[in-house]
Each structure stands twice: as C-alpha cells, then as structure tokens.
Amino acid sequence: MTVYFIGAGPGDPELLTKKAERVIGECPVCLYAGSLVPAEVVGCAPEGALVMDTAPMTLEDTHAVIRAAHDKGQDVARVHSGDPSLYGAIAEQIRRLRADGIDYQIIPGVPAYAAAAAALGQELTVPEVAQSIVLTRVSMKSTSMPDGETLENFARTGTTLAIHLGVRALREIERVLIPHYGADCPVVVAYRVGWPDQMFIRGTLADIRLKVRDEKITRTALIMVGPVLGEISDFKDSALYDPAQPHVLRPKATAGV
C-alpha cells in the first residue's frame, strides 16, 4: 500500500501530468483539497472509489482515512494544489506516515507561478534583467517565518518575488518593497490561476493594492513583483543560441561570424 502525494497544478485539469492522471485513475481512495483543487481534477478516479474533499477535515481525520486504507491494502491518492513541495502541508502528513510505517511517493505538479507566467505569455528569467525567483510568503499569525526569511531581506536582492498567501497584506508588501524596487515597479496579482474565473491584475507597487481592492480579491492569489514583469524589449539575446558562443553541443562558432 502506498500514499501518493499528487500535485494537481493550479486548477486546470489538463495541467495534470500523465503520471498523476494514471495514479489517480488507479487508486481506490482519493483525498483532495477541494478548496484549491477542482472536483474535475479527480474525475478520473476509478468507478466506486472513495473520493473525499478534505477541506472540512482535520489532519487527524485524513490520516485516519489513510490508516483505514492501509489496513485494507488500498493505495491512496492524496491530491494537493500546485506542486506538493510548495506550501503543500505534506511534511506533517509524511511524519505520521513514517511513524506508522506507511509508504509514500510524491508526484510533482505545475506550481502556480509557472502557470501564471505561461498565462501571461512571458519568461521570468530574461538576460540581464532577471535571473532569479524567490518563492516566499508573508508572515501570518498561524505560522511565523524563520529568522532571516523576511520580505525585507529578499527585497534587498532586487530579484523577482512570487509571494504566496499575501493578498491581504498588500499594504505591508507595498511599504517594505517600494524603498528597494521603486513605486513604479511592475506587479501582477494572479487570482485562481487555471480556474475558469482566473484573473490577472497588472499594476505597480504604488497602485496594485487599490486595483485588487476594487476587484474584491481576498484569497487564492499569487503576487508577483519585479522589473521582468514589465514591457521589456531591449534586453540582450541569450548566449545559448548565439553563433559566436560555442558550447558543448556546438563546439565551434558558426562560420562567418
């Protein structure tokens, strides 16, 4: 018996990997986070499978279902939004599985920031503009941030930020980031990426808070900040395809260069 932690992606059922779809289709028990994962994502579960929305359940409730499946020798598809390695709350589940000697595997999924970039039609690592992305969140009452992992520290790098779980803290994000990025730094708030009602709100650090307030968005949004999100056309081409730059798969510069 194995518990499969499956990344469902941000919402679009077609962004499931082939492996994820196959495993969901084979497991007699399927637990999915219905507040973040559309029911259509687990629609491929086999006929007669036990399919449960874990949104109203506690950690102990879900673990009890897993233990019952283990006693019956049944595999479990534990379906999470995005990629399970990012804010998936799987570490505490794994701790209980290990304590009970239950096997598990992790199947990665498309993270929200990648799906957002795809929907926006752009690359997030543009030569000489941005080459790094910090995936972080703001500190909340429920879970504090580790020492050193502050928005202020990340802002000092000037790199692109993908801020999770922070749409209600835009005033604080604005206060912390403007001194480092400038008031006119581009911002995109990606709401419910991959769902039918997805929305992308573009603005700057100076005006994004009011734009989000006007749309009445209070949850399920990713905040992306950085110069790369603006209209950029004068960047340098990558050296990867530069005929004057040989590399291991093209060891000689192109003739005539």
Secondary-structure topology with pairs:
Blueprint: E1 2-7, H1 18-26, E2 29-32, E3 50-53, H2 59-72, E4 76-80, H3 91-99, E5 103-107, H4 112-120, E6 133-137, H5 151-157, E7 160-164, H6 170-181, E8 186-191, E9 199-204, H7 208-214, E10 221-225
Task: Give the count of helical stretches.
Answer: 7
Beta-strand content estimate: 15-25%
Shape: globular
Kindly state the percentage of residues in helix: 25-40%
Low-confidence stretches: none
**Topology as a string of helices (H) and strands (E):** EHEEHEHEHEHEHEEHE
Strand order of the largest sheet: 3-2-4-1-5
Main sheet overview: 5 strands, parallel
Computed structural class: alpha/beta
Number of strands: 10
CA gyration radius, whole angstroms: 21 Å
- Termini separation (Å)? 60 Å
Rounded average pLDDT: 92
